[in-house]
Amino acid sequence: MSEPTDNDIIIQGVTTSGRTFRPSDWAERLSGSLSTFGEDHRMNYSPFVRPTTINGIKCVIVNKALKQAQPATYSFLMGFAQSNDLNIIDPTDSTN
Questions:
Q1: What CATH number has the domain bearing residue 56?
Q2: SS3 per-residue string spanning 37-81
């Protein structure tokens, strides 16, 4: 899967206390809930949200453009991460 860029926010499947988030397929489920099915009957992840694994940790990559394109969806994703105490990483934020 593709690597995150400076235009992305990473939601890690690890809580701020270091515990692995369960279930193990949470990233695929979350990204899948925002996917569509193409004419080829295959699931296509949103161009704004995609699951990946970084350094052995399940993650969801959220493109920052989602905040402008679909504010409610962006709020939902950030709320999901915060309510589950997941690490949120913005590669352009020097306070991370």
A1: 3.30.70.2340
A2: ECCCCCEECCCCEEEEEECCEEEEEEECCHHHHCHHHHHHHHHHH
